[in-house]
Design brief:
alpha/beta, nine-stranded mixed β-sheet, 42% helix, 15% strand, globular, disordered N terminus
């Protein structure tokens, strides 16, 4: 993929393109598995700027992909938005996305955050990092590999193996270290579980507060959200006792999860769909991913919300996310082998 202009010039291009389409006739049919109320601002601003009405269908990613497959050429879907590269790759493999040409997206979205065939693009990121109880853990693990150290036996909480975040984390470990090493790591990790895998990322943080575990893994935006506003089970006084580690800063770097989307294979409003993706790459939308949902923007140079910035700078894992997504079947085999429920 070729970058055709600078990010600064592309930013101006985005603004010009959106402004020139103001009060355009038409609509956009959006299939989304993003479940955040704060995304309402993204949609309303796009409509205000363009006059394009957004019709939404919301469900989990697998349901939406299956629906698009079943609808076939008669599908009304224009855009699929979802979380995690594995799901974007799943949609591509199912044939429900199409390749598009956009100089704006090519220039704005880093190459490692977009599909090689231009069928999907990433628009926001979350780092999957280590959290720990500062009152109980004097020497927290500094990388993912160390989470399998017997020194942490009975201390670690994590989500189920059926969760996509678990799947892509192990898939990234496979990509970085190989299947054999990943299997050995997963066995040690499971041996260190403080309880059976359960709940979402916020529940892993609550486990630190309740004392059920001393170490957990969560995406950064769940913690940053609790820094910004009240979250049930994460009171401010307890939050002060939670420390965090951006893992593997002297090695592969922190594992990243991606939220992104693509144009549906049979999009009836293809031009509007491309305009919407280009809008998501604009400074305005990128800023809102951080300010409204405590995520990391995909476009370099866009500022961070105070809650996100307060967690500090770090080096992300630059592993090819497409390759990581293709390792999910191998990760599932590892889950079965080591008894990760």
């Amino acid at each position: 993929m070729r970058k055709t202009t600078t990010v600064l010039l592309a930013s101006a291009t985005v603004a010009t393109a959106i402004a020139s389409s103001a009060f355009a006739e038409g609509e956009l049919n959006l299939y989304s598995s993003r479940h955040y109320d704060t995304d309402e601002r993204l949609y309303s601003d796009f409509t205000e700027m363009t006059g394009i009405t957004i019709n939404r269908i919301e469900a989990n990613a697998d349901e939406l992909i299956a629906r698009m497959e079943a609808e076939g050429v008669n599908s009304p879907a224009d855009i699929l938005l979802t979380v995690d590269t594995s799901r974007l790759e799943r949609a591509k493999a199912a044939g429900v996305l199409q390749s598009i040409e956009s100089d704006v997206l090519e220039a704005r979205i880093p190459e490692n955050l977009q599909d090689a065939d231009n069928e999907w693009f990433g628009f926001s990121q979350r780092a999957r990092i280590i959290f720990y109880d500062k009152t109980d853990v004097a020497n927290p693990p500094m990388d993912y590999v160390s989470l399998a150290d017997p020194a942490y036996e009975g201390m670690v909480c994590h989500r189920s193996s059926t969760n996509v975040y678990s799947q892509t984390l192990v898939s990234a470990i496979i990509e970085n270290f190989g299947t054999e090493a990943a299997t050995e790591w997963a066995q040690g990790f499971v041996n260190n579980f403080a309880r059976d895998p359960q709940g979402g990322d916020t529940d892993q943080l609550r486990g630190l507060v309740s004392g059920e575990c001393d170490i957990s893994i969560s995406n950064t935006y769940y913690f940053a959200r609790a820094l910004r506003k009240d979250v049930d089970g994460l009171p401010a006084d307890a939050m002060a006792n939670i420390g965090w580690i951006f893992p593997a800063q002297n090695a592969e770097g922190a594992h990243m999860n991606l939220s992104g989307g693509g144009v549906a294979a049979n999009a009836p409003n293809r031009d509007n769909a491309i305009k919407f993706l280009e809008y998501l790459a604009s400074d305005q939308a990128q800023d809102y991913f951080s300010a409204g949902n405590d995520e990391y923007p995909a476009v370099p140079g866009v500022g961070l919300a105070a809650s996100v910035a307060s967690m500090g700078l770090f080096r992300p894992d630059a592993v090819d996310l497409t390759a990581v997504a293709k390792n999910v079947p191998a990760a599932q085999e590892i889950f079965n082998q080591v008894g990760w429920e």
